[in-house]
Design brief:
By secondary structure, this protein is an alpha+beta fold. It is built from 6 helices and 17 strands. Strands 3, 4, 5, 6, 7, 8, 9, 10, 11 and 12 form a 10-stranded antiparallel beta sheet that branches. It has a 4-stranded antiparallel beta sheet with strand order 14-15-16-17, with no helix packed on it. The protein has a 3-stranded antiparallel beta sheet with strand order 1-2-13, covered by helices on one side. The relative contact order is 0.14.
């Protein structure tokens, strides 16, 4: 042993042993120094700051978002029902995903002469159910307990003029029915008048963030016609996973990402907003979507992948062109028709099969 009094002490047992040797030896020391190691846990925000951002932090799914098209404003063709809307261009922010469930759908049957060396176009996608956001605000689907906005005569509103057509107008009279219900007579800017219920008028002003929640009934301004609006249900609040945008499902099942200025809250929504949607597959889809939120089922597709999607009542072959968060843009092979589709849409062959199997399992569980 060295005669130096500066001895490194890696552990308590080793310290005791060396102390005994020094005290019993001829070179005993009157003072022995101990080295103490203190561990301090860094706060989470410091750990996150030291961790470099990676593509996995931006998205919870393996999405092909390297294409600059996914960050740009998209313009579907004129024959697309999505052509009224635009995608806002927000910067990506870090998000640490939490995957809850992963399911691979059964691969579709292949013909006997199919090539074994299939490329990405024949890969059956994975369906993921994952926590969509990281704060109570981003995942909430409960209507906030706030005072209702005032609705009065001479007030400018957006009112229903047709199933998928709302327009700006002025309330000229408020009528009280015999059963106590209120009706609003609206004079439209573009000719005509209509007597509508409170759930068929929307505020002409931009809502505040604290008023919005998943499941809120809204009207969305069309991009190519500022005088026209379409009704829908708010499906995503701004988060790091959707680049700080709002996702809205129109009543015709069309999904669209929009910014806050294009949103308008319905003045007196029904207790169950689904009652305002005509009976259709979309109504069933929205019921399941709101039930699953904030863990929606999403298929994982890659750019270039081909599969079948329902179009005009038939399953038709299409190819993925762009993946943008919860949406994909596809082009149909037969007529080159382009449109944006939600990755959990019942129009997707894989999602329709998955939901059918899930419904069957739930029925069996209820029977048991």
């Amino acid at each position: 042993m060295s005669d130096s009094p500066c001895v490194s002490i890696p552990s308590i047992n080793e310290t005791c042993s060396k102390r005994t040797q020094l005290e019993n030896g001829s070179d005993s020391l009157s003072l022995i120094k101990k080295a103490v190691v203190v561990l301090t846990r860094l706060p989470e925000y410091k750990i996150s700051a030291l961790r470099p951002p990676t593509p996995q932090q931006f998205y919870s799914e393996d999405e092909s978002l390297s294409s600059s098209d996914s960050d740009m404003q998209w313009e579907p063709g004129d024959d697309s029902s999505d052509s009224d809307f635009s995608v806002s261009t927000n910067k990506q922010k870090n998000a640490k995903p939490t995957k809850i469930d992963t399911t691979r759908t059964p691969a579709p049957p292949t013909s006997s002469n199919s090539n074994n060396n299939n490329n990405v176009t024949d890969i059956s996608p994975i369906i993921i159910s994952s926590a969509f956001a990281h704060s109570s605000y981003e995942t909430t689907k409960v209507r906030p307990n706030l005072p209702e906005g005032e609705v009065k005569v001479d007030m400018m509103v957006l009112a229903r003029k047709g199933p998928m057509r709302w327009q700006r107008g002025k309330i000229v009279e408020i009528v009280t029915k015999e059963d106590g219900r209120l009706k609003y007579k609206v004079s439209f800017e573009e000719k005509g008048k209509s007597l509508v219920s409170g759930h068929h008028i929307a505020f002409d002003t931009t809502p505040k963030l604290e008023q919005l929640y998943v499941g809120a009934r809204v009207a969305v301004q069309c991009q190519d016609n500022k005088f026209r609006f379409q009704p829908g249900i708010l499906a995503e609040l701004p988060s790091r996973k959707n680049r700080l945008r709002f996702l809205v499902f129109m009543d015709d099942h069309t999904p669209v990402y929009v910014g806050l200025p294009l949103l308008h809250l319905v003045c007196r929504p029904l207790e169950d907003v689904l009652e305002d949607i005509p009976d259709s597959p979309h109504k069933g889809f929205m019921k399941q979507y709101l039930k699953d939120w904030p863990y929606p089922h999403l298929t994982q597709y890659r750019v270039g992948q081909s599969f079948n999607v329902e179009l005009n009542g038939d399953q038709q072959k299409c190819e993925v062109q762009v993946v943008d968060c919860s949406l994909i843009q596809v082009v149909f092979q037969d007529n080159q028709h382009k449109e944006w589709i939600h990755r959990g849409s019942i129009r997707l062959e894989h999602m329709a099969r998955f939901l059918e199997l899930k419904a069957g399992e739930e029925r069996n569980d209820d029977f048991d």
